[in-house]
Amino acid sequence: MKIDKLDKQILEYLVKDARKPFTEIAKDLLVSPGTIHVRVKKMESVGVIKSTSISVNYEKLGFGFIAYVGLYTKRSLSSPDIIELLREVPEVTVAHLATGKYGIFCKIRCRDASHAKEVIFRINDIEGVENTESMISLEESINSNAGLLQLIINE
Predict the structure, then answer these.
(1) Which of 35, 72, 91, 107 has CB atoms 3.0–4.6 Å from 131's, for a disulfide?
(2) Confidence of residue 22 (pLDDT cuts 50, 70, 90)
């Protein structure tokens, strides 16, 4: 699917507010609401739009402690199995297969340092994980794809 200027404009609106009514987007872009609906459905069907979501303030929910955990793995062939077991650890919010010294790199959200220690020990006990190395986040200063999307839109 070729993404045109209108598709990019629609994406720009939806990234800012995924709940913005199609009628408002259509009014701003001077097209019919049906056009917006068709374009969004088309972008969903080809996988450009993966989902819509809300942004949650985990700190207000008691999970403001963030750490990054690098996993040293025995063999890269075991990485898919490790990823599946990481899915069972609810505090693991992001996991990447990686190159470099870690086979897998994770982000965890916890209540505090003690909770993070428990989670890291659970991760370290996963079959195929040789060891872990962790870093504590002092502050999540940027968590946005808006700049990247703006770059794509302006290309």
Answers:
(1) 72
(2) very high
Q: Looking at the structure, tell me whether residues 70 and 131 fall in a common domain.
A: yes
Closest CA to 123 of 144, 149, 104: 104
67, 136 in Cβ contact below 8 A?
Answer: yes
Q: Which domain holds residue 124?
A: 65-136
Please, are residues 32 and 58 in contact by the beta-carbon 8 Å criterion? no
Distance, CA of 84 to CA of 37 (rounded, Å): 35
Span 34-52, pLDDT tens digits: 999 999 999 999 999 998 8
Q: Are residues 79 and 46 in the same domain?
A: no
Same domain, 50 and 79: no
44 shares its domain with 100? no
pLDDT (0 to 100) of residue 151: 87
Query: pLDDT-derived band of residue 143, with 50, 70 and 90 as boundaries?
Result: confident
Classify 114 as helix, strand or coil: helix
